[in-house]
Amino acid sequence: MSRELPELPFKLEEFGPDGHWSYADGALTGRAGARQDRFVPPGGDSLESASDAPRLLGALPEGDFRLAARVTVGFEAAFDAGVLYLHVGEREWAKLCLELSPAHPTVCTVVTRGQSDDVNSFVVDGDSLWLRLSRTGDAFAFHASQDGEKWTFVRFFTLGTAPERATAYAGFLVQSPTGEGCEVSFDHISFLPGGPADLRDGS
């Protein structure tokens, strides 16, 4: 089933398990089921299948952009998270997470190129934070913010090659790797043309 959000210039499609997605009053809400995640353990077999979690994604237009949202997570178990998600290929994708990792809300990132890495950036006070995914040239950037105005640089990376950029997908993911489920809301959603003016100065 496709969905249209007024804040986004592209339709969203559901992938993975049922996320019970809903949209009302400017807020998108999804729920992960028990022990749902999107991860390929870095110490495992390179052919190991990725685990899966509910995703709501759309095909990105060409060019640089900034996709942002305030994420609020109903934390119940370790590694519950709300995520901005980027997908380039079946084994090439990335996550920017507000995650309970494992006892404190934390900004975490995962970049998967065959297998996933896993990086904790900084601890957050509370269950809500702005997250932003950007494309600038042939690369992507992750930022986080307490207020949606001043952004903290988290990560700069590449996925795929330049000809594949127009076929990248982006959107939202919810996960509960160790728990019985987790509800997440995304509001203040925005999609703007152009990348950040400077990756590291808070713009």
Overview of the molecule:
- Helices cover 0% and strands 52% of the residues.
- It is mainly β and 203 residues long.
- It has one domain (2-43, 50-192): Jelly Rolls.
- Strands 1, 2, 5, 7, 8, 9, 10, 11 and 15 form a 9-stranded antiparallel beta sheet that branches. A 7-stranded antiparallel beta sheet has the order 3-4-16-6-12-13-14, with no helix packed on it.
- The chain is globular, with a radius of gyration of 15 Å.
Q: TL;DR?
A:
It comes from Streptomyces halstedii. The protein is mainly beta.
Which value, in Å, is the CA radius of gyration? Answer: 15 Å
What is the CATH domain class? Mainly Beta
Separation, N- and C-terminal Cα atoms = 35 Å
Which bin fits the share of residues in helices? under 10%
Looking at how many chains there are and whether they match, the oligomeric state comes to single chain
Helix/strand structural class = mainly beta
Largest pleated sheet: 9 strands, antiparallel
Number of helices, counting only DSSP H or I runs of 4 residues or more: 0
Mean pLDDT: 93
Lay out the secondary structure.
Layout: E1 2-3, E2 12-15, E3 22-24, E4 27-33, E5 55-59, E6 65-73, E7 81-89, E8 92-100, E9 105-113, E10 115-116, E11 119-123, E12 128-136, E13 139-145, E14 152-157, E15 169-175, E16 181-193
Antiparallel strand pairs: 1-2, 2-5, 3-4, 4-16, 5-15, 6-12, 6-16, 7-8, 7-15, 8-9, 9-10, 9-11, 12-13, 13-14
Protein name: DUF1349 domain-containing protein
